[in-house]
Specification:
It is a single chain. The chain has about 200 residues and is mostly helical. It folds into 2 domains: about 50 residues, Arc Repressor Mutant, subunit A (Orthogonal Bundle), CATH 1.10.10; about 120 residues, Tetracycline Repressor, domain 2 (Orthogonal Bundle). It contains 9 helices and no strands. The N terminus and C terminus are likely disordered.
């Protein structure tokens, strides 16, 4: 039989469903491994997805590519959740506060997912190498709030300070149980307010 004839191939809909099942099985395995220290393998993913290793390798070149796809999908879902929290609010100061709170709330409500995306000992190559698409929006809001151009180097510094502070506090809250919730929220508010009003260097 000539290659490329398409004979014997599953329908496109079935193929897409199988790919989705593999991505979901991989993500579920990553969540479990973040809690119990287990290992996600081709065999465990195929067992959960109800397919065989050749099927997995038909859709993905290797396990690393599948892991990237699973984390990429979760990262996009996380970004959309934060966007929904921001809504149509057009106040840059309020958007900064809402974005920080949404990030913190998502991380503390989904600690296993947060560990996989941001705290894994062996992060997935390319999955979280940037703060996320919301970083550009953070830069824009800070530029408006501080009356500077988005490309001003100080704005990049301020945006990274915001992201690092919120990320660090969220990580601290996840890994340090027993601290009252109101303490984290008060600290988050303090950081957001302090960084939004950070002293700006004089123009040279």
């Amino acid at each position: 039989m000539a290659r490329g004839s398409g004979a014997g191939r599953p329908p496109a809909a079935d193929s897409a469903a199988t790919r989705d099942a593999l991505i979901q099985a991989c993500w579920d395995g990553l969540l479990r491994s973040s809690s119990d220290g287990g290992t996600v393998t081709v065999a465990s993913i195929c067992r959960a997805a109800g397919c065989t290793p050749p099927t997995l390798y038909h859709h993905f070149a290797n396990l690393e590519e599948l892991r990237r796809s699973a984390c990429g999908r979760a990262f996009e879902d996380w970004s959309r959740d934060i966007d929904l929290r921001l809504g149509s609010n057009d106040s840059p100061a309020e958007r900064l506060r809402l974005r920080a709170q949404a990030y913190f709330d998502w991380g503390t409500a989904n600690p296993a997912a947060y560990r996989v995306l941001f705290l894994a000992d062996t992060p997935v190559t390319g999955a979280t190498s940037q703060p996320g698409r919301g970083f550009d929006a953070l830069v824009a809001d800070l530029a408006t709030l501080m009356g500077r151009a988005p490309e001003d180097p100080f704005i990049a510094t301020a945006a990274l300070a915001h992201w690092a502070a919120v990320h660090g506090l969220t990580t601290f809250a996840i890994t340090t149980p027993g601290v009252p919730t109101h303490v984290w929220r008060d600290t988050l508010g303090y950081l957001t307010n302090a960084l939004s009003g950070v002293a700006q260097p004089e123009a040279s």
